[in-house]
UniProtKB/TrEMBL annotation:
GO terms for molecular function: carbohydrate derivative binding; glutamine-fructose-6-phosphate transaminase (isomerizing) activity. Residues 2-220 form the Glutamine amidotransferase type-2 domain. PANTHER family: GLUCOSAMINE--FRUCTOSE-6-PHOSPHATE AMINOTRANSFERASE, ISOMERIZING, GLUTAMINE--FRUCTOSE-6-PHOSPHATE TRANSAMINASE (ISOMERIZING). GO terms for biological process: carbohydrate metabolic process; fructose 6-phosphate metabolic process; protein N-linked glycosylation; UDP-N-acetylglucosamine metabolic process. Homodimer. Pfam families: GATase_6, SIS. Its EC number is 2.6.1.16. This is Glutamine--fructose-6-phosphate aminotransferase [isomerizing]. GO terms for cellular component: cytosol. CDD domains: GFAT, SIS_GlmS_GlmD_1, SIS_GlmS_GlmD_2. Residues 289-429, 454-602 form the SIS domain. The active site is at 2 (nucleophile), 607 (for fru-6p isomerization activity).
Amino acid sequence: MCGIVAYVGHREACPLILKGLKRLEYRGYDSAGVALLNGEGLKIYKKKGKVVDLENELQNKDLHATVGIGHTRWATHGEPNDVNAHPHYSNHKKLAIIHNGIIENYDSLKQALLKKGHEFRSQTDSEVLVHFIEDIQQETNCSLEEAVRLALQEVVGAYAIVLISEDDPTQLIAARKSSPLVIGVGENEFFFASDATPIIEYTKDVIYLDDNQVALVRQGELKIVNLENERQAPYIQKLELELEAIEKGGYDHFMLKEIFEQPRSIADSMRGRVNREEGTLQLGGLSDYMDKLAEAKRIIIVGCGTSWHAGLVAEYIFEELARIPVEVEYASEFRYRNPIINADDFVIAISQSGETADTLAAIQLAKSKGATIFGVCNVVGSSIARETHAGAYTHAGPEIGVASTKAFTAQVTVLTQMAIAIAHKRGSITEELYQQLLLDLSAIPQKVGQVLKAADRIKEIAYIFTYARNFIYLGRGLNFPVALEGALKLKEISYIHAEGYPAAEMKHGPIALIDEDMPVVFIATKDSSYEKIVSNIQEVKARKGRVIAIVTEGDELIPNMVDFVIEVPETHDILIPLLSSIPLQLLSYYVAVMRGRNVDQPRNLAKSVTVE
Ligand code: M6R
């Protein structure tokens, strides 16, 4: 949450920072600001709203500077307004800070500073930090770098920060703990950003700062130290990301582009792993652990939101194929309820961003108890990917729309491969089934392409339900997590209240909601619970509910019972979520567009939830 961009070098800083902030708007978009340093001193410009509102504010101003910092905010402390927007000045306005994260002990620091006469302009925790740093520098007469280190030793919480100082126009100081920060290394220029997207068009050489590291750029030189001032060797990596991957490519929204990318992203998540011709499946990242995994007594899966839903799908698949007991936990609950974790447990952490604070804390807890941790992350080099013992990247490519779509199907594809590989190793599936699953999995990208051809039909259905006030999503077995995911997609981008339920649970309560105004989406593909879900559809129709059903191609029964039908191709039961989730993504997308919502940046949300 919150996006950071900073630059020092020979280019015009302001346009570069604004462009970068637009790329990071998925991280927060309630206000934005820049601080620029030039002959006239340190100037801050900030504005409530999107980066484009800031841009309008900046028109006709002299913004010439080759050093600057910028921020796009997702509010935690203090409402979204001009004053609470970042950057924040220090007490004497000699320093400015941008911050992503939460300073948990900000109040005690603030009280002490107030007693010393500091005057605060905003309600933010971030402003307290820059005052605190300036105060230390003045009291101890030390360098800014030293003051940053001393201050951070006192800080409780999470941060990625960048500081700019009027006293030294060639200098930027950055630090991180539990919030991401990437440094781009160019020719006599340096970039700082929350992820690599603002950087890639200038340099592919990046350094992912580690927790408790402080980076200092001064007169074109980069130095990294830890909080104890021990020099740290910078590890420069080459970015593999291409610019086209983070642009809309002709689509109206990133979300639509990402939905339509799924034939490719699912194929990418199998690339180099499934070899259909040779009938083999290999997950390089897990190979050292396969013997231990074959003996696993229990797997715990942790995640949040959509990633948690992917975990629920995986639970069914692991238990069905590998016959290993699986528990799926909300990371936010798991970390605080003193869970029983054994040293022989395997924990799988699922996260698109790889930065979700609760998931990160959950795996740190499990690690401290001796469990083996695997990551299923999309963002390469992310905190969760680095914190785990091993894992498999989803390779879905950058997902920019706040609503997760291609990340979900890529997560499910990777988890399915893990389950098949472990089941094969354990001997809990026959060679014949193993080979069949590899064939069926390989056919999924092309079948997803087929589902996407129904987009216009789904748009028509969405039009009919644009003004619905509620939705219910029902599914059984593997389609139950798909129902949860469909409901989450709809509510987060259209702001329509939607509930997902196991279809059989309906008669224990939700059926009371059914009347002619209640749209009910049944995910009713042909699988082992088909007859049962047909009965559930009848129960809804008997109460005049309006039913949209996702069915298997060629189904002749359900289309005669329901109001609207969307077909998906036939596949093996365990692979159905990879197909049945796609129409639900499109349905929520079109409903949200017709309601005039900001699909890629829905209100109150951010793509990367780095606060708990
Ligand atoms: O980056 P993560 O996968 O860890 O994010 C977890 C959730 O915040 C995320 O899936 C969220 O629920 C999405 N907005 C859902 O579309």
